[in-house]
Amino acid sequence: MTANSTNLTRIRVRYCECDPMGVAHHAAYIPWLEIGRTELLRQSGETYAALERSGLLLVVVKLDVRYRRPVRYDDVVEVRTEWSGGSRVKIEHTYEVLVVEPGANTPESVPFVAAAASTTLGCIDRDGKIRELPAWLASAR
Amino acid sequence: MTANSTNLTRIRVRYCECDPMGVAHHAAYIPWLEIGRTELLRQSGETYAALERSGLLLVVVKLDVRYRRPVRYDDVVEVRTEWSGGSRVKIEHTYEVLVVEPGANTPESVPFVAAAASTTLGCIDRDGKIRELPAWLASAR
Amino acid sequence: MTANSTNLTRIRVRYCECDPMGVAHHAAYIPWLEIGRTELLRQSGETYAALERSGLLLVVVKLDVRYRRPVRYDDVVEVRTEWSGGSRVKIEHTYEVLVVEPGANTPESVPFVAAAASTTLGCIDRDGKIRELPAWLASAR
Amino acid sequence: MTANSTNLTRIRVRYCECDPMGVAHHAAYIPWLEIGRTELLRQSGETYAALERSGLLLVVVKLDVRYRRPVRYDDVVEVRTEWSGGSRVKIEHTYEVLVVEPGANTPESVPFVAAAASTTLGCIDRDGKIRELPAWLASAR
What we know:
Number of strands of chain A: 5
Number of domains of chain A: 1
Order of helices and strands of chain A: EHHEEEEH
Structural class of chain A: alpha+beta
Radius of gyration of chain A: 16 Å
Largest interface: A-C, 21 and 21 residues
Oligomer: homotetramer
Strand content of chain A: 35-45%
Shape of chain A: elongated
Number of helices of chain A: 3
CATH topology of chain A: Thiol Ester Dehydrase, Chain A
CATH class of chain A: Alpha Beta
CATH architecture of chain A: Roll
Strand order of the largest sheet of chain A: 1-3-4-5-2
C-alpha cells in the first residue's frame, strides 16, 4: 500500500439527493462512491476521463453497500476510498462514508460512519472485451 | 396537425424522485418531458434510439417549466406532449403534466394540471454541427 | 411462498439513466429495484405510500448488486422481485433484472439477465426507532 | 445590490450526470442551479436547511434554461448566481453556468458560458399556504 492508496473527498449532500424521509436516498450514495474512486485515480496522476479517451472503460461488476445511519440534506460527507485488491483485469475498492460536518437537521455529534461499501470494477474496451489494466493503473494500486 | 401530433404517456412517480418536502423535486419533471417527446416520436413510427444510430442527435437548447401544483410520491402523472413548431433544424414541443391517479398522500380531486412546459430541440451530428431534420421527422410533425 | 411472493414489473430505460458508455449507469438500477419491491407490496393489497402515512418507514440497510451484462437506452427491462426472508423487523428481497425487449442499440437476443441483486429493509418509525412490521406485511410474505 | 448578491460556486461534473452523447444531460444542470442559490443564501449568513426547520419552504414555480454549449464529464463548471428580483413572497434568481476547468474530453478554451438560466421561488409553509419571506431573507437580497 502506497501513499496513493487512500483518498478522502468531501461532498455536500444535495437537496435533490434527499427523499421524503428527509434523508439522502440510498441510491444517492452510489455516485459518491464513484467520485471517491475517481478522485483516488486522479491522485495517482491520471484521470478516468483520460483512461476512457485511451479506449479503456472501467465497469462496475459488483456493488455492496451497508447503510448504518442516515445522512441528511446539507450534511458534508467524507468518502474514504481505498484500493483493496484486484487482478490484471479487475480493481477492488472499499469505502466508508462519514458525516463530518452536520447540516441544520443533523443532531448527532460528528464524525460518524453512515455507510460502508465495496465495489469491483472490470476493465473492458469499447467492444465490451475484457482487457488488462494499463501498467500505470496496476502499479498505482 | 396530424393524428400523430399529440402523445399521452403515464408515469408513476418514483420515491427517489421526491424530496424532503414530500413532493416530486422540480428536476424530476425534466426526464418526464423527455419521455413524453420520445413516445411522441415512437408513435410516428420511429424511435429516438434509431435516429441516434443514424448519426443525428436532438439536443435541448431551451427549456421552460411552470410548476403550478405539487406532485407526490406514487401519484400517476400523464404527460401530454405536442409538436408546437420548429424549422428545418429545430423542433418545438409543449407539455402539460397532469396528476391523473392519486397516491395515498394526494388529497386533491384528479385530474389536475401540475405543470406546463416547453422545449426546443436542435438537430446536430456527432461533431456538433447543425444538421437538417430527416424528412420523416419533419413530416411527422 | 404465496402467489403474492413474486412481482414482475417492466420499465423502459430512460435516456438520462444512461452514461457516456451508452449503457444504463450502475446507479440507475437502484430505483428499478425499489420499484420492483414497491409493486410487490402493491400486489399484496397495500401500498408503501399508505405504510408511510401510518408512521412506519422501510429503510434500506443492505444492498448488493451483481452487474452481468449491459442494459442500453430504450431497452425494456423486467424486474423480478421476490420476498426471500426477513424477521419481525426486517424484509429481505432478491431481484433479477432482465432485458426483455431490446432498443435499437441492443444486438443480443432477449431475454437475458443483466443483473441480480438483494436488499434488506429495516422497519422504523419517524423517530428512527426500530419497529415491528405490521401484521399484514409480515403475512403477505 | 449588496456584496451578498452574487455567488460563485464550482462543481465538478459527475460521470452519472452525463448521457450517451458524452455530455452532461440537460436535467443535470437543474441541481447545479439549486446549489448556486443555496450557496448564495449561505453567504448571507443563513442556510436553506435552517429556513426549512423554521417551517418555511421555497418552492420553484418557474424555471427557464438556455443551453448554449455542451458540458462534458470531469469539466469543472462555475455557477454564477444572482438575486434578480422578487416580491414579499417570491425570489427571482438568474444564473450563468460556465466551464472554467476542462476535463480530458473538452477541447475548447475556457472559460466559456455553457448555459444561462432563471428561476422564481415562492415562499410557502408546510400546509402549502403562501407566506411572506422572513425579514433577513428579504433584506439579504
